[in-house]
Amino acid sequence: MTLFLLLVIAAIVLGIIGAVAEGLLYLLVIGVVVFAAALVYLGMHLRRSGRRRPLR
Question: Which residues have C-beta within 8 Å of that of residue 23, sequence separation ≥ 6?
């Protein structure tokens, strides 16, 4: 979960810098890609943790 939060924070920082700084639009695109990767990671993590079978 720490990795997810780190990726989201990095995406936000890159997005803000890319939107504010002139000529650094590619940082905004990288921020969006990192955010999408964080969502994919979270989805994989939640799917994997949901497969636990109860003990009999």
Answer: none
**Six token digits for residue 37:** 């990767």
Are 28 and 19 in contact, with CB atoms under 8 Å apart?
A: yes
Q: Which two tokens stand for residue 46?
A: 């939640």
Q: State the pTM of this model.
A: 0.76
The answer to whether 32 and 11 have CB atoms below 8 angstroms apart is yes
Q: Is the pLDDT of residue 36 over 90?
A: yes
For residue 11, give both structure tokens: 């995406």
Q: Write down the residue that tokens 């994989």 correspond to.
A: 44
